[in-house]
Backbone:
């Protein structure tokens, strides 16, 4: 018995010794590994992408969060999405970025956009990062680019409203010669925001309209010129600079906002020349400081502060995969929500079916209680599914030549013009007021009350066939008014 006990003791001692030895070896290995790879080393997106920009950005490593595939979203920017993220994950990720040396340039605040989309902009050395958290989708998007320009209007500056030039902010729906969009805001500080601009032959009218507000010899100052998408009826005015470069000298343009799609999208929709014209124009314009006008990429969730206006970017095209485009570059449109004197104004360029569906997933209907809605596609694409998601008081419709585009495309189905006219009638029945830009530029002052818009006389540069062919017959619009 004693001999057996002795052997058992020896065996137990050997096991303990072996365990201790293994533990010590393990500790030595871990120490050596720690020396080679510090325990607090932060992983980057290098494991998921070979894009240099994203490879330099710390990755969100959170249990349950799935990191997606990196994609090129245009103009030297790459994006990666993460599914299953929470608000706490997003907040912790912003803290991580700052711990790793990224400077927080702008944050849309604790309320986000309607408390459903939060966005922050950061920068470290040459790398700019935008982090977007969409609460209803439990998704975080990270967009990174090298040497990207950042808007000066992402932070509120109270000094811009210290000495107002005018008492009221004004928005104009500009009369255009043929078809297209052009909306102008005149801020209380006397500066302007321009949304799109129409075709090339509309440029001289736009310039003269802006100059009509200025004292003799002073140039209009456009704080921001927003191009919704690269179709000639929205940015065609820039083509005119090729034959009239002197037009650029009549304006001061501090920024151009434009979200350039990736090369595949631009090539598919044959927009290479149009996109190029935006950058050509930027090189011809000058800012208040005399430098070339920067082209800045608007990002979903950003808030811009222009004097007495807050402009929210509530959808930008990088969130929409190429496979979701509705057979048209229209879906690359940047969607904007203006907040003026507590009133909400929705401009979406020619936002199409793909973007509409994604937006309805991102935002609750409460976000779309609108004082003013600028109808999509100049009134020919009135998607009942989307417009019934909105509550609208005043409906504005840019002029549209129905003979130019007799059919439209949505969700793979071609609808004839009559169906669109019927949809327009349906939309008319749900709004308090409807007006078009056919018979002259409309001016709305804020706070705006239904029925108080001022219509200017038809401009000498413009001509129409008389009847409003957009689907809003003049007599119906007059009755609405």
Residues:
């Amino acid at each position: 018995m004693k001999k057996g006990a002795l052997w058992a003791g020896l065996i137990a001692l050997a096991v303990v010794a072996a365990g201790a030895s293994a533990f010590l070896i393990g500790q030595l290995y871990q120490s050596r590994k720690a020396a080679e790879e510090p325990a607090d080393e932060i992983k980057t997106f290098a494991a998921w992408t070979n894009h240099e920009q994203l490879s330099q950005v710390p990755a969100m490593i959170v249990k349950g969060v799935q990191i997606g595939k990196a994609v090129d979203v245009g103009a030297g920017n790459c994006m990666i999405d993460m599914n299953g993220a929470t608000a706490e994950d997003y907040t912790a990720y912003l803290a991580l970025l700052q711990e790793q040396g990224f400077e927080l340039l702008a944050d849309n605040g604790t309320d986000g956009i309607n408390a459903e989309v939060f966005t922050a902009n950061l920068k470290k050395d040459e790398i700019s990062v935008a982090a977007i958290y969409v609460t209803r989708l439990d998704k975080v998007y990270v967009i990174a680019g090298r040497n990207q320009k950042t808007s000066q209007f992402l932070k509120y500056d109270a000094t811009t409203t210290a000495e107002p030039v005018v008492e009221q902010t004004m928005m104009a729906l500009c009369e255009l010669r043929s078809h297209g969009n052009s909306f102008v805001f005149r801020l209380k500080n006397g500066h302007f925001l321009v949304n799109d601009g129409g075709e090339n032959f509309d440029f001289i009218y736009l310039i003269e309209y802006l100059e009509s507000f200025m004292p003799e010899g002073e140039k209009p100052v456009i704080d921001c010129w927003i191009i919704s998408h690269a179709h000639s009826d929205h940015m065609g005015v820039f083509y005119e600079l090729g034959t009239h470069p002197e037009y650029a000298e009549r304006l001061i343009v501090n920024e151009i906002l434009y979200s350039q799609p990736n090369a595949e999208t631009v090539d598919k929709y044959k927009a290479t020349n149009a996109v190029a014209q935006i950058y050509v124009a930027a090189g011809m314009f000058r800012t208040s400081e005399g430098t070339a006008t920067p082209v800045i990429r608007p990002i979903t969730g950003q808030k811009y502060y222009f004097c007495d206006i807050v402009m929210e970017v509530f959808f930008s095209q990088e969130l929409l995969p190429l496979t979701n485009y509705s057979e048209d570059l229209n879906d690359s449109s940047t969607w904007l929500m203006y907040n003026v004197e507590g009133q909400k104004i929705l401009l979406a360029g020619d936002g199409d079916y793909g973007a509409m569906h994604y937006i309805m997933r991102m935002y609750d209907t409460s976000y779309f209680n609108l004082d003013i809605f600028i109808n999509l596609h100049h009134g020919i694409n009135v998607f009942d599914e989307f417009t019934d998601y909105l509550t609208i008081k005043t409906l504005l419709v840019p002029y549209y030549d129905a003979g130019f585009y007799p059919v439209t495309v949505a969700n793979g189905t071609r609808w004839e013009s009559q169906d669109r006219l019927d949809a327009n009638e349906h939309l008319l029945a749900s709004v308090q007021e409807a007006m078009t830009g056919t018979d002259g530029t409309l001016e709305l002052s804020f706070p705006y009350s239904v029925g108080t818009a001022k219509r200017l006389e038809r401009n000498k540069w413009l001509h129409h066939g008389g009847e409003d062919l957009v689907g809003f017959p003049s007599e119906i619009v007059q009755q609405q008014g």
The chain has a mean pLDDT of 83.
